[in-house]
Amino acid sequence: MCHEIAARILAIPLVKERIMHPRLQGRRTTRRWSMFKRVQRQAGLFREMIERGCVDPGAAAKEDRGSAFAVAARLCLQCPHASACRNWLDSGVPGPAPGFCQNAAYLDHVSSISKAMIP
């Protein structure tokens, strides 16, 4: 179950289809919500931070029965530092998550767990 939750959260940015409100189905009008774009952007940043830290999403989702992963995803969704995060990821600077990241401690923790699992 934890793997399914991680896969769903990390797959959000891969959704490219247009979303149609149920009341508008069958019409040509489509609507994109700004909140959907925000969720898509923030989930993408979260996924990239996990990848940058060489974190195994399955192992991260198992930590604390998935609740720590869910909290981290929620913190990222609500984070006010999206542009700073995007700039940091684009810079390619190696190392742990920057100080402004609310998930820095969590990412460091699950990164160490993931690295310990590698033989």
Structure description:
The chain has 119 residues and is an all-alpha fold. The protein has 6 helices and no strands. It starts with a helix and ends with a helix.
List key phrases describing it.
119 residues, mainly alpha
Strand content: under 5%
Count of DSSP helices?
A: 6
Extended strand count: 0
Order of helices and strands: HHHHHH
Give the structural class: mainly alpha
The overall pLDDT, averaged over residues, is 77
Summarize the biggest pleated sheet. Answer: none
* Inertia-based shape: globular
Whole-angstrom Rg = 16 Å
- The termini sit apart by 25 Å
Low-confidence stretches: 13-17
DSSP helix fraction: 55-70%
What is the topological layout?
Elements: H1 2-11, H2 34-52, H3 57-62, H4 67-77, H5 82-91, H6 104-117
In short:
The chain has 119 residues and is mainly α. It is built from 6 helices and no strands.
